[in-house]
Structure formats: C-alpha cells, structure tokens
Design a protein that fits this description.
The complex is a heterodimer of chains A (272) and B (358). Chain A is α/β, with parallel strands linked by helices and 272 residues long. Chain A has helices spanning 59-66, 89-94, 112-118, 128-133, 137-155, 171-184, 201-218, 229-235, 253-257, 260-267; strands at 8-9, 15-16, 19-30, 33-44, 48-52, 74-79, 82-83, 97-99, 189-193, 221-225, 238-243, 246-251. Classes of the chains: A alpha/beta (272), B mainly alpha (358).
C-alpha cells in the first residue's frame, strides 16, 4: 500500500490528493451470509477508483455501505478524515455523496429536467408556505438551481430531451440522465454502479468520455463498479478487486492485471 | 392552428416553467376564470347549484387533496371520507365555539386540524406501503366515523346526533344556513377551489412536489439522492388532509347544512373520491377536476335524459344510472388507464401539430 497521507501522480500526470474516504475492516453480514469480509481500502481526492470482481463478489453491497443504505456489521467508514456515525441514506447524500444505480432508478413519471432538479434536493430549502405561494424565495431558488441544472444538461448533451418524460427515453439516454441527476448534487464523491452495463461500444465511449470529463472539469472523485475490463483499465487510477466478499487485489491497473490471485479469480484455477 | 409554441419565446427560466406554456392555454384559462366569477354567479339557480355545480366544486377540492397523496406521493388512502368528517366536525365545533369569527377562518382552521389528524394517521406509511397502507387508512376511516358517532361532545350533545350549520355570513351575505342564496354558496366554494388548485399547482411544480414524486416513482433512489422520506410523506399527508378537511367543512356547512356522519362521510365517500382521482388521472390537477366533473355530472345528466327526456320510472332509471356509470368507468380505464387528464394531454399534443401532423 502507498502512503495514506501524501498524494501521488497518475500515469497521465494528474495530481491525486489525500484520502477522501477510507473503509476500515468492513464486514457486512446478512444473517449467516457474509456479503463482505473484512475489507479495507481508501479513495483519494480526485481519483477514479474502480471496484471489480466476478458476479456476487459483493461490489454493489460495498457501494451500498458507502452510500449508507447498508450498515456494516463490523468496521468503520471514514470520510474527510472523520469517522462517519451511523446515518440515513439522505443524510449521506447531504454530505456530498451521490450515486447511480445498476438498474436504472430514475423517476419514470417525471421529465428529464425534473429528474435532474431532484438531484439538487439537498441544496434547496424553501419551506412549504413560500412554495405554496410561489413567491419570492421559492421562485428565485427554482430559477437559480435551474441555471445550474441547465449547465449539466449542456455538459451531457441532452438539451433536446429536457422536457421528455424519462420513461420514454432509450436506455443509453436514461443512463446519461441518471448520471446527470447524480452530478446535479455537486458531489464530492460520485459512485457509479455499472455505468456501462448493457451499452454498445459507441454508448460506452460516450459514457467514458463523460466520466473522464466529470473528473477533469469538476474535480469529482469517482468510485465505479464495472465489468468491462477494457473500460476499467483505461479509466481508473487504482482498482480494488473483490471475490466472494474478500479483497484479493488493490493497486494500479497494471499491478492488478499481473496479480496471480486476480487472474485465478477471473480465469479459474487448475486443480490437480 | 393558433395552438402553437412557435413565436412565443421564453427568455427566463421563470417564464419557461409557467403553468400554461402556450398562449392559447393562458387565454383559455383566464376566460374560464372570467366566466366562473363574472357570469355564472348571475345565472345560477338553486337546482344547478345544489345538484351539479357546488358538489362538483367541493369534490374537486377533495380530489385535489387525495391526488396529492395518491397521485403525486404514491400513498394509497381509503380514509378520505373519515378526513372529510374531521373537517366537517372541526368546522362545526369552531363555528359554534367562536361564532364571531368569520366562517372563512373556520374552514381554514378545520383544514389545519384535519392536516394534523392526517399526519397522525399517515405515520404508518413510513413502515408500510401499497395495499397494506390502504388497509391502515381504512382503519382511520372506520375509527373516525365511529368516534364522531359515539362521542357526543363532537355534535354538541344534540338529540339527533346530527350536526347542523348555523347561519354565518361573509360581507353580510349568508353563506351557510337555510337562507343562503345559490350564488353565495357557489361563490364561496369557487374561491376555495381556485385557492386550493393554485396552491396545489405551486407545490407540485417545486421542490416539495418533486420530493413527493420521487418517493412515488422510486422511494429507495429518492432517499439515496437526498429526499428525506419522513418529511416528504408527512408533508404529503398534511397538505392532502388540509385540502380534504376544507372540502369536508364546505360539504357540511355550505352544501348539506346538516350532516349525519355515517351517511355523509362513510366508506362510500372514500371510494367515490378515489374513483374521481383514478378516472381523472393520477398526478394531475386538471385530472382532479375532470374526475370530479365526470362522477358528479354524469349521474345528473343520465337522470335528466332518462327520467326527464324519456319518461322512465325513477327507480329503473336509478338502477340503470349505476350500471351505466360503472360500465363507463371500466371502459375508460381500459381505453386510457392514465385517466381523462392523459386523454386531454394527448389531445393537446395532437392539437400542436394539427392540421399537418406529418
């Protein structure tokens, strides 16, 4: 493991900062089933961190622990150098952690615009009465946030579908809107659960471009789960490999690629 | 041909998010308001007020209330009748306890009390969803009706167990009691309807509405992106019950005048309002009006045609009326499960392209 206080410089010359989030000895148990066993790793500021592993390795469970949806049986989550107390998911969101989902979890009855506006929920705070009157602050706040949301819409190149109900959009665009909704929260840490699942090559390239741009332009730290090895190796700075709930590898894409345990997990072991 | 967005440029986000983005719609909306306030009060008579217009307006308020809870926030409720009863009895108690205060404040106060009761009965929604929540609200329905029947304090120990509205005035014009003119009844209901619809629209287009719809469409995702489910559901219950309480208060004080709780606010009422919302369109304020109009006007229309026009015996007409209304509900739901509001939306989309759809 590298030193945890200092940053490092990536292969393409980006400066990575200190530790943003650290998972310490996380174990997650559902009854007798251990989904995650004693896993520790860190995510550094400005980094693109991938979590990979075969099906059922516990990657999504890990993401759910980070976003506060599961409470780890054992272990601590440290964020910004502080131990995070037990929190509800919406409180985690308020801390600046946003995510997308493996199976698209958009609000189907709402338009693209409304979906992305919902992402700014944590930053909007007019009360019920001013809302009801639609006067002064409520209206002003709505316009201000709309401006920010329009920037994201421009960034993701989805201007044309602004007012379309998301249920009517094709899959690739829905994924993009979901990314937009997560971005709208201006997260410090963005979690992407298989952002490219079920996409064709072009859509994957678009999505990769957006992920890199997000990291580059907004300086957002990204943790992503992905099965497409080409994408993972190209995008990520460091990779955590999980198998059967355990961590079997951690390091740069090159290190991981040459790790015997990782190769065994993916290709199988010869029994003699 | 004049139903177009073209040439109607929006230069600010406020303009872009207005309720009626098309100029023709805005003109139509103001025209409807002008007719409702400026013409109808002068031509309305007792029959039209009592049989059609006043119940339509009051049910529209109840339907908007239920639509906020069920259509926007996705929490099914069968307690509407019970909450209307809370509004009615709260209004009665306020009217008799503070006779000097204007009836308008009594009605609003009744709404506030109902909002509180609604939040109380909405608490189970944090744990249970869907049909199970429906059953929990059904318990509220039966409990509330039972409460108002059994505790004499609520009906001021009157011998009949009924509550009846004393005469109250607004600007020296009677709006409750037996001496009320049709137009006064109509106008006070209209004012409340317009206010309620306006508030409902404002709430549903902003942050609060988005948090409701997020909970409705995908509650887990909503929570993970920062919607507080407790707050979203409780505000939905509060606002919804507030409106339903207002409708109950008006139903009792302005429309019926005297009420026996089991008869006026029984489970039938809950279902009636729920049907209005479903037929009109879940998650649409226009749908609440359409649904209320459909279920209030259609029976009257059928009765007039059958009894008045074709000289059928009244009892057969009454049976047939139920069958026809029931049949129409089924046909409507098969043809357009999203209700009249969706039909309206589709029509508008077609109108935008008419007469050259290709």
């Amino acid at each position: 493991m590298k030193d945890t206080t200092e940053g490092y410089v990536t292969a393409d010359g980006r400066q990575i900062g200190g530790v943003l989030m650290e998972m310490k000895n996380i174990t997650l148990q559902f009854g007798g089933v251990k989904a995650i066993t004693d896993i520790s790793f860190d995510i550094r500021e400005g980094e693109i961190r991938a979590i990979i592993g075969p099906n059922g390795a516990g990657k999504s469970s890990m993401l759910n622990v980070i976003s506060g949806f599961y409470v780890p049986t054992v272990g601590e989550v440290w964020f910004h150098g502080k131990k995070r107390p037990q929190m509800k998911p919406y409180q985690v969101a308020q801390q600046g952690i946003a995510r997308t989902f493996q199976n698209i979890a958009l609000f189907k009855g709402m338009s693209t615009l409304d979906n992305i506006m919902t992402g700014r929920m944590t930053m909007m705070n007019t009360n019920l009465v001013t809302q009801a009157m639609w006067w002064g602050k409520a209206q002003r706040e709505e316009s201000e946030h709309r401006e920010k949301v329009e920037k994201i819409i421009d960034f993701l190149e989805i201007q044309a579908i602004r007012k379309t109900p998301v249920g009517r959009l094709p899959y690739g665009l829905q994924k993009r809107v979901e990314l937009g909704r997560a971005l709208a929260a201006e997260p410090k840490l963005l979690l992407l659960d298989e952002p490219m699942a079920g996409m064709n090559v072009e859509e994957k390239e678009d999505m990769s471009r957006f992920i890199l741009d997000v990291n580059d332009e907004f300086g957002t730290t990204i943790a992503l789960i992905e099965h497409d090895m080409g994408v993972v190796m190209d995008l990520s700075d460091r990779v955590v490999v999980m198998d059967y709930g355990k961590k079997i590898g951690d390091g740069t894409p090159d290190e991981v690629r040459n790790n015997q345990e990782v190769i065994d997990a993916y290709l199988g072991v010869e029994h003699d | 041909m004049f139903y177009r967005e073209a040439g109607d440029f929006k230069t600010s986000y406020t303009d872009d998010s207005q309720t009626f983005p098309i100029k023709f719609d805005r003109i139509r909306y103001y025209a409807v308001l002008a007719v409702a306030f400026g013409i109808i009060p002068f031509i309305i008579n007792d029959y039209w007020a009592n049989a059609v217009v006043v119940p339509f307006l009051i049910y529209a308020i109840a339907a908007i209330g239920l639509n906020i809870l069920t259509g926007y926030c996705g929490q099914v409720s069968l307690g509407t009748g019970g909450f209307m009863a809370v509004g009615a009895y709260a209004c009665y108690k306020l009217m008799t306890s503070f006779p000097d205060v204007s009836i308008v404040f009594h009605v609003i106060g009744a709404g506030a009390i109902t909002a509180f009761v609604g939040v109380l009965f909405g608490l189970p929604s944090l744990r249970i969803k869907g049909f199970y929540l429906a059953v929990a609200t059904l318990a509220a329905q039966f409990f509330l009706v039972w409460l108002f029947n059994k505790v004499p304090w609520f009906y001021n120990y009157s011998a009949s167990g009924q509550i009846s509205a004393p005469e109250r005035t607004v600007f020296n014009i009677a709006v409750t009691g037996p001496n009320t003119d049709a137009w006064a009844k109509y106008l006070i209901c209209l004012v409340f309807v317009v206010a309620v619809a306006w508030i409902a629209r404002n709430l549903t287009r902003g942050t609060v509405g988005r948090s409701w719809m997020a909970i409705r469409d995908m509650d887990i995702a909503a929570e993970i992106i920062g919607v507080n489910p407790l707050k979203a559901k409780m505000t939905a219950f509060a606002v919804s019950s507030f409106f339903i309480g207002i409708s109950g208060a008006l139903f009792f004080s302005v429309y019926l005048g005297a009420v026996e709780v089991g008869e006026a606010f029984g489970i039938n009422k809950s279902f009636l309002v729920l049907f209005m919302v479903i037929i009109g369109g879940l998650g649409s304020i226009f749908g609440s009006f359409a649904g209320a109009a459909f279920l209030v006007i259609l029976p009257v229309l059928l009765k007039n045609v059958l009894v008045g026009g074709m000289n059928w015996p009244i009892d057969i007409a009454a049976h047939l009326e139920l069958m026809v209304v029931g049949g129409l509900i089924i046909i409507f739901l098969i043809a357009e499960p999203h209700g009249l509001a969706q039909l309206w939306r589709v029509t508008k989309e077609k109108l935008r392209l008419w007469p050259f759809p290709h």
